[in-house]
């Protein structure tokens, strides 16, 4: 696992977008694992710019999102389907039939979770997984205490996550209580993981993830066991780290 500290959010986003672009240029049919939330927005914006400059082509790319709320239809402004389309997909040339999110409106949710896992396998697995991190150390909606071997399933959201996400809804009562999420075991099968975090409110979660023990109480700490995981943070999110880290990747790890 590698930690890279960038000066600020803009630098972090540019670095992550260039990293993803390089991977797609090496393997045009890259399978991306994508995240929602405010953290990856800058990366998506940079990728859109790179696409407009003809530096990256998504025509053969496929993508699988980490999670989706249960009970929000696709057209709901807070559904992750809507978020991805608005903030990324409609601005690039990924084919609509090649992007997938869990189906929060499925009649048989356990079956749809199994199908999601199967679909990822059909595409040959995820090449690069982008992760954000919750203030409580969650990855996707794998809240503290989630099995480190878990697969795609329904999870009840933590009170902290409900309150963190209430900023996007008119009131906290409107925040869904359940979500479908890829499991930690699913995420760990990605060939490359990049975990992004910015801002002081992520500093605790980042020091526990990078320097603490591996524990289900900090689900993100599992990335320490991944052979090709990179944590990319800005200075604020890095502020509680105790060891020295570089601002550039070790060449051998690329
Ligand atoms: P954020 O969410 O990017 O909006 O901070 C991250 C997460 O909860 O995983």
Which band does the percent of strand residues land in? 15-25%
Please give the order of strands in the largest beta sheet: 1-10-9-6-2-3-5
Q: Which CATH architecture is right?
A: 3-Layer(aba) Sandwich
Largest sheet: 7 strands, parallel
Total of DSSP H or I helical runs spanning 4+ residues: 7
**Global geometry:** globular
The CA-CA distance between the termini, in Å, is 12 Å
- Low-pLDDT segments: none
The CATH class turns out to be Alpha Beta
Estimate the helix proportion, in percent: 25-40%
Summed up, what is this model?
The chain is α/β, with parallel strands linked by helices and 254 residues long. It has 7 helices and 10 strands. The chain has helices spanning 9-26, 41-52, 80-87, 109-122, 159-165, 184-188, 203-211, and strands at residues 2-6, 31-34, 62-65, 67-69, 99-100, 128-131, 153-156, 178-181, 192-197, 229-234.
Secondary structure layout plus pairing:
Layout: E1 2-6, H1 9-26, E2 31-34, H2 41-52, E3 62-65, E4 67-69, H3 80-87, E5 99-100, H4 109-122, E6 128-131, E7 153-156, H5 159-165, E8 178-181, H6 184-188, E9 192-197, H7 203-211, E10 229-234
Parallel strand pairs: 1-10, 2-3, 2-6, 3-5, 6-9, 9-10
Antiparallel strand pairs: 4-8, 7-8
Bound molecules: 2-phosphoglycolic acid (PGA).
The site of 2-phosphoglycolic acid has 7 residues, from loops.
């Amino acid at each position: 696992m590698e930690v890279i500290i960038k000066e600020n959010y803009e630098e972090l986003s540019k670095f992550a977008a260039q990293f993803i672009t390089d991977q797609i240029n090496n393997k045009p049919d890259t399978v991306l694992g994508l995240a929602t939330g405010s953290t990856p927005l800058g990366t998506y914006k940079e990728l859109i710019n790179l696409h407009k400059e003809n530096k990256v082509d998504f025509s053969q790319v496929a993508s699988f999102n980490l999670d989706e709320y249960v009970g929000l239809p696709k057209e709901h402004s807070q559904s992750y389907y809507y978020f991805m389309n608005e903030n990324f997909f409609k601005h690039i040339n990924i084919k609509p039939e090649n992007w997938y999110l869990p189906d929060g409106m499925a009649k048989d949710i356990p079956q749809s979770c199994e199908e999601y896992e199967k679909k990822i396998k059909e595409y040959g697995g995820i090449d690069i997984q982008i992760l954000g991190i919750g203030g409580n150390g969650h990855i996707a909606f794998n809240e503290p205490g989630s099995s480190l071997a878990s697969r795609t399933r329904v999870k009840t959201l933590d009170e902290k996550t409900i309150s963190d996400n209430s900023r996007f809804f008119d009131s906290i009562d409107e925040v869904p209580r359940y979500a479908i999420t890829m499991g930690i075991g699913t995420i760990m099968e990605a060939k490359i993981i990049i975990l992004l975090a910015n801002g002081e409110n992520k500093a605790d979660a980042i020091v526990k993830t990078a320097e603490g023990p591996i524990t289900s109480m900090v689900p993100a700490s599992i990335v320490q066991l991944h052979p090709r995981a990179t944590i990319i943070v800005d200075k604020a999110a890095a502020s509680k780290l105790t060891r020295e880290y570089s601002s550039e990747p070790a060449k051998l790890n690329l």
